[in-house]
TrEMBL record:
Major transport protein for glucocorticoids and progestins in the blood of almost all vertebrate species. Residues 1-22 form the signal peptide. One of its GO terms (biological process) is glucocorticoid metabolic process. Belongs to the serpin family. Residues 47-403 form the Serpin domain. SUPFAM superfamilies: Serpins. The gene is SERPINA6. This is Corticosteroid-binding globulin. Keywords: Glycoprotein, Lipid-binding, Secreted, Signal, Steroid-binding, Transport. It is found in: Secreted. GO terms for cellular component: extracellular space. Pfam families: Serpin (PF00079). It comes from the Eukaryota. Coiled coil: none annotated.
Length: 404
């Protein structure tokens, strides 16, 4: 029997992240402690996955939610047996001699809780669903643990009638993502008897909106021979920025309503992959401590992209050949014959526009009469990285090669 695992993501910005603003309680502190303990592993895995994906898809847009992928794989490990379970968790970067499986899953539960309890001004939905053939019965331990740590919804369907099953899955995801993610499944490349879906829908708000009336068509230089026209957003204000002296790039940090931080990184022409190769926790820490504030005229493309990735093949390229395929043992999921994973797919959609917390009308911008503002124009391939400001979990990693 074959299991297909899908993670899917929709980031609709307006831009923004989520935060919990309630008063701290002992339970809150415990939750945050578990969550923070995951951050180094999640960020390291995120950059490793991102770099391999960029290397395997040259000259292509890349958009992933590493936390979504980590959560889906960690959840899948609860149905793995023997060496497969340890291989998955170690593949995610966890040292099982330093952190127990219970601590790992508790950390993901804490992460899920923080994401669900987002600021009411943001739209945020994150969840997990398992669609299994009506002839199957889940193992009690898998059912209980995935419900406890990942709030997994288990739904039965008839995979002998794929058209009907596909509609059921699509309707479920469409409903959970407020109608924004539709027709995820049109056909299945290989037969499956279970489909595990991890999804994120997110719509947030810039703390400082771009000016609607200032968006206009501008040139975007995909490479030396390809030029496209894109709607370019604009704002002019005090912004944190850096002209990096170690890597060939400029960057700006923008804030979201809530606990979100986004880095827009503009590498020098032809050097975007060089900058990506150098990304690490230390790089982000250095950037954060080196930023300065100044008046910036900022131009960023209005972006809408959609991508799909076979994560299983990517993990194999990363040297984790047996992590999901080949001899992997997922007999802990159902009472029936041993399952094998047939496909691990990450679906991603990105929309980036001007919206902020208020109507984005033109406003007077104070100017320093002694100096002109710095102009930073994202008119060539660039990088976007979005982190939760409290835990520094890596939520979204983007490489924009062609915004059209």
């Amino acid at each position: 029997m074959l299991l297909a695992l899908y993670t899917c993501l929709l980031w609709l910005s307006t831009g923004g992240l989520w935060t919990v603003q309630a008063q701290d309680t002992d339970a809150d502190m415990s939750t945050r402690s578990h969550h923070r303990n995951l951050a180094p592993n999640n960020v390291d895995f995120a950059f490793g996955l991102y770099k391999h994906l960029v290397a395997s898809t040259p000259d292509k847009n890349v958009f992933i939610s590493p936390v979504s992928i980590s959560m889906a794989l960690a959840m899948l490990s609860l149905g793995a047996c023997n060496d497969t379970r340890a291989q998955i968790l170690q593949g995610l970067g966890f040292n099982l001699t330093e952190k127990s499986e219970a601590e790992i899953h508790q950390g993901f539960w804490s992460l899920h809780r923080l994401l669900r309890e987002s600021d009411t001004s943001l739209e945020m939905t994150m969840g997990n669903a398992l669609f299994l053939n009506q002839s199957l019965e889940l193992q009690e331990s898998f059912s209980a643990n995935t419900k406890r740590y990942y709030e997994l919804d288990a739904l039965t369907t008839d995979f002998q009638d794929w058209a009907r099953a596909g509609r059921q899955i699509n309707d479920y995801i469409k409903n959970k993502t407020h109608g924004k993610m539709v027709d995820l499944f049109s056909e299945l490349d290989s037969p499956a008897i279970l489909i595990l879906v991890n999804y994120i829908f997110f719509k947030g708000t810039w703390a400082h909106p771009f000016i609607w009336e200032s968006t206009r068509e501008e040139n975007f230089y995909v490479n030396k021979t390809t030029l496209v026209k894109v709607p370019m957003m604009f704002q002019s204000r005090e912004i944190k920025y850096l002209n990096d002296q170690e890597l060939p790039c400029q960057l700006v940090q923008l804030d979201y309503m809530g606990n979100g931080t986004v880095f827009f990184v503009l590498p020098e022409e032809g050097k975007v992959d060089m900058v990506i190769t150098a990304l690490s926790r230390d790089t982000i820490k250095r950037w954060s401590s080196s930023l300065i504030s100044g008046h910036v005229d900022l131009y960023i493309p209005k972006v809408s992209i959609s991508e799909a990735y076979d994560i299983g093949s990517l993990l194999e390229d990363m040297g984790l050949a047996d992590l999901l395929y080949n001899q992997a043992d997922f007999s802990g999921i159902t009472h029936e014959a041993q399952l094998k994973v047939s496909k691990v797919v990450h679906e991603a959609m990105l929309q980036l526009d001007e919206k902020g917390v208020m109507a984005a009308a033109p406003t007077a911008v104070p100017r320093n009469v002694t100096s002109e503002p710095l102009t930073i124009q994202f008119n060539r391939p660039f990088i976007v990285m979005i982190f939760d400001n409290f835990t520094w979990s890596s939520l979204f990693l983007v490489k924009v090669v062609n915004p059209t």
